[in-house]
Amino acid sequence: MKNNSINDDNNNINEDLDERPLLVNYKNKLYDIKKFASKHPGGKKVLEKVAGSNIDKFMRGEERIMGVRHEHSEAAFEMLERYSLDQSFKKDKLVDSNQPVMFEVGNLKEKYWRWIHEPYDGKLRLFKSDFLESLTNTKWWVIPLVWMPLVIYFAFNGLNLMYQMFGLTKAVATSSILFTLGTLTWTLLEYSLHRGVFHWKPNPKSYNQITFHFALHGLHHKTPMDGDRLVFPPTPALLIIGFFYLFIVHFYHIQYFVVFVVESYLDISVMI
């Protein structure tokens, strides 16, 4: 009975500690950054180290925290303001983060490019439809769950076809060569997409270009700390892979497609 009482007391203490605010002082204003601590790129321990202290010099990069000195960007200061205790939680300046934003960002026009490069540590809703919205959120474990069966199927199917054509030794050698070529192909494709498409700057006067850019890659820049949007959702990825499947199978034998489906799992799933 006594041990149970001690355990209950310890659990209550831990719960109280979890609920404590994480206060810091910046320019004589108090901020509770408890909710941000777990999202901090430098780790939660860094913020816990400065809890209760003045962080002016740390933010300007004039003093070290745990041996690291870092001058924070303008976006970091704006993010900090959202946790000020002298006002309610500050929402995004240009859009209502509680409303679907997919078809609203195009109206930002000239302000769009700067807006997506000012990170928002919250979560943005894209669609009014709950079903469409669910397709934009992907847990990391969904990626292997969706792609591994396809990878295994095409790998064995391609190897079997080449075995029938060339025999075991040549089939294994050919598969290895194709896998290597596929690695290089998808790496080059990913680099080209990032340079030419993902980081392409849309016409600030074009609603359609801005909306397309935001859907393709802009969201990743705006909400880099949204854990459910760190990987490429399977639904749009299937469309991309389907295109390559139809193209390659039309001009070549199906065994060559194994190299692309394997690499699609490795690359497309984390392309954003």
From TrEMBL:
Taken from the UniProt entry, a GO cellular component term is: endoplasmic reticulum membrane
> Could you tell me the keywords of this UniProt record?
Endoplasmic reticulum, Lipid metabolism, Membrane, Oxidoreductase, Transmembrane, Transmembrane helix
Q: Which GO terms describe its biological process?
A: fatty acid metabolic process
Where does it live in the cell? Endoplasmic reticulum membrane
Which parts of the sequence belong to the Cytochrome b5 heme-binding domain? 1-109
Q: Do the record's keywords include Endoplasmic reticulum?
A: yes
The protein's topology relative to the membrane is:
Multi-pass membrane protein
Where on the tree of life does the source sit, at the highest rank? Eukaryota
SUPFAM superfamilies xref list: Cytochrome b5-like heme/steroid binding domain (SSF55856)
Q: What is its main location?
A: endoplasmic reticulum
One annotated GO molecular function: fatty acid 2-hydroxylase activity
Instruction: Please name the Pfam families in this protein's record.
Output: Cyt-b5
The record ties this protein, via InterPro entries, to: Cyt_B5-like_heme/steroid-bd, Cyt_B5-like_heme/steroid_sf, Scs7
Q: Where are the transmembrane segments?
A: 140-159, 171-189, 237-262
* PANTHER family recorded: FATTY ACID 2-HYDROXYLASE, FATTY ACID HYDROXYLASE
This protein's name: Cytochrome b5 heme-binding domain-containing protein
**Annotated source species:** Panagrolaimus superbus
